[in-house]
UniProtKB/TrEMBL annotation:
<dbReference type="InterPro" id="IPR015590">
    <property type="entry name" value="Aldehyde_DH_dom"/>
</dbReference>
<keyword id="KW-0560">Oxidoreductase</keyword>
<feature type="domain" description="Aldehyde dehydrogenase">
    <location>
        <begin position="13"/>
        <end position="488"/>
    </location>
</feature>
<dbReference type="InterPro" id="IPR016160">
    <property type="entry name" value="Ald_DH_CS_CYS"/>
</dbReference>
<keyword id="KW-0520">NAD</keyword>
<dbReference type="InterPro" id="IPR016162">
    <property type="entry name" value="Ald_DH_N"/>
</dbReference>
<dbReference type="Pfam" id="PF00171">
    <property type="entry name" value="Aldedh"/>
</dbReference>
<dbReference type="InterPro" id="IPR016163">
    <property type="entry name" value="Ald_DH_C"/>
</dbReference>
<feature type="active site">
    <location>
        <position position="254"/>
    </location>
</feature>
<dbReference type="InterPro" id="IPR029510">
    <property type="entry name" value="Ald_DH_CS_GLU"/>
</dbReference>
<protein>
    <submittedName>
        <fullName>Aldehyde dehydrogenase family protein</fullName>
    </submittedName>
</protein>
<comment type="similarity">
    <text>Belongs to the aldehyde dehydrogenase family.</text>
</comment>
<dbReference type="InterPro" id="IPR016161">
    <property type="entry name" value="Ald_DH/histidinol_DH"/>
</dbReference>
<comment type="pathway">
    <text>Amine and polyamine biosynthesis; betaine biosynthesis via choline pathway; betaine from betaine aldehyde: step 1/1.</text>
</comment>
């Protein structure tokens, strides 16, 4: 397979039908990292046709493969991921800009996801028996695969997000076509290689590298696609839903968030508590340079500790070591693209124009031995004296920008945290157990952390309220997204009904 043959259809690696190619750039220096095929509508149609054949085939088709065999394949993929951990982590680091250690953690989490869904399907029963009120009636609800799934993944966690879709789709007995972001497609290509090595039958899994338009758009509207699972920005998610509507296919959307990190004064009562809360606020906002859908980009801190908290936060943020993610000692890598860098600069400029106070960052750092010239680096930025009317507070910035708002009462804190169109995740920091439960219960967000930020579990559902999307990934509900419920009702002693006189 040449470097440009990155489209995988019916078990065969190929170039785009048009012959088009795309350069994938290294965000650390803007130089060409790889060349991939630039798929189009023809490639997409061919991939969907292959997935359709693999789903609709006879006895040997993937939906009719025994659950134990499907689970065994997922476990083999997990083993192969661990075998190739360093290669995959390095690819993910170079492609996305994240640190190598983050890449390693991603690979481990991906392996965990494959194992989780393998265990989940094997541990299930044969269906839910329904009491029909008679010994002569047998009623059971079973779950069957949806069919052909279009899986569209984002650029910030390409491998991780692919696993959250591929693993449950395969476990449930579906076939799929996956389209990674054209900005960061390389780890998905590696994943597809591992799926093939693990023994995935031809046509069950297909990959088309290319742009959202036409590949993602065609997948969303395609009449032979039964489900679209999309993770990405709000505007693109709306387009996916609109394109899918005429065919009334299932749609699952994870569209990001504008996530509050609420810090009460009692969480900073001791020096140790204060250090922990500040450290976690840095982690919430600046991991992967803020390019995280669940980033705690809105710090909402109690007024009595605000000045001390923000001063220490800014002091530490200035010391974050920026550079190429593969270099030792680097804590944050570059933004993923020139477009994302431009957007980040524009958000900071709008915030300052609207009255925010810059505490640190706000510009590109000077190049040095670990930050090549031309890279898309931006200094971690803390903006104080922010309010809800500001664009930087309302919109998902997907950059290393932390805004600071303050509150005096618990009710005010909850109101600020919920004052967003999104509802993906949020956190509350307090030593008061009663307050922690009250605030967590009132926050309208799909995940709420108490005295923590960012961890997730493959066995717990992930998804949001409001414009953060529809449906859930991970957990039992994440598997249910890729299934249809069917009620089978059997009369063991049929008799004439005599409804009509005859």
């Amino acid at each position: 397979m040449s470097s440009a043959e990155t489209i995988h259809i019916d078990g065969v690696w190929r170039a785009a039908a048009s012959g088009a190619q795309r350069e994938v750039l290294d965000p650390a220096d803007a130089k060409t990292l790889a060349v991939v095929s630039e798929g189009g509508a023809d490639d997409t149609d061919a991939a969907v046709a292959a997935a359709r054949r693999a789903f609709d085939g006879g006895q040997g088709a993937w939906p009719r493969t025994p659950v134990a065999e499907r689970a065994a394949l997922l476990r083999r993929v997990a083993e192969l991921l661990q075998r190739d951990r360093e290669e995959i982590a390095l690819t993910e680091s170079r492609d996305t800009g994240k640190t190598l250690e983050e890449g390693r953690i991603d690979v481990d989490c991906v392996a965990d996801a494959f194992r989780y869904f393998a265990d989940l399907v094997v541990g299930e029963g044969a269906g839910r028996v329904v009491d029909a009120g008679s010994d002569t009636l047998h009623s059971v609800v079973v779950h069957e695969p949806v069919g052909v799934c279009a899986l569209i993944t984002p650029w910030n966690y390409p491998l991780l997000q692919a696993s959250w879709k591929v693993a449950p789709a395969l476990a449930a007995g579906n076939t799929f076509v996956i389209k990674p972001s054209e900005v960061t497609p390389l780890s998905t290509v590696l994943l597809m290689k591992l799926l093939a090595e693990a023994g995935l039958p031809d046509g069950v899994g297909n990959l088309v590298t290319g742009a959202g338009d036409p590949v993602g758009a065609r997948l969303s509207e395609h009449p032979d696609v039964d489900l679209v699972s999309f993770t990405g920005g709000l505007a693109s998610g709306v387009k996916v839903a609109q394109a899918a509507a005429p065919t009334v296919k299932k749609v699952a959307l994870e569209l990001g968030g504008k996530n509050p990190n609420v810090v009460f004064a009692d969480a900073c009562a001791t020096d140790e508590d204060f250090d922990t809360a500040v450290d976690q606020a840095l982690n919430a906002a600046f991991i992967h340079s803020g390019q995280v859908c669940s980033a705690g980009s809105r710090l909402i801190v109690e007024e009595s500790v605000r000045d001390r908290f923000v001063a220490e936060l800014a002091r530490r943020a200035e010391k974050i070591r920026l550079g190429r993610g593969t270099e030792d000692g680097v804590e944050c890598g570059p933004l993923v693209s020139a477009q994302q860098l431009d957007k980040t600069e524009a958000y900071v400029a709008s915030a300052l124009a609207e009255g925010a106070t810059l505490r640190c960052g706000g510009s590109q750092p000077e190049p040095n031995e670990v930050r090549p010239a031309g890279g898309y680096f931006f200094s971690p930025t803390v903006l104080d004296h922010c309010h809800r009317a500001m664009k930087v507070v309302r919109e998902e910035t997907f950059g290393p920008i932390l805004t600071v708002e303050t509150f005096r009462t618990e009710d005010e804190a909850v109101a600020l945290a919920n004052d967003t169109e999104y509802g993906l995740a949020g956190a509350v920091w307090t030593k008061d157990a009663g307050r922690a439960r009250r605030v967590a219960g009132r926050l309208r967000h799909g995940t709420v952390w108490i005295n923590d930020f960012h961890p997730y579990l493959p066995q717990a559902e992930w998804g949001g309220f409001g414009k953060s999307g529809t449906g859930r990934e991970l957990g039992p509900a994440g598997l249910a997204e890729y299934r249809e419920a069917k009620h089978i009702y059997q009369n063991l002693a049929p008799e004439p009904v005599r409804w009509f006189a005859g």
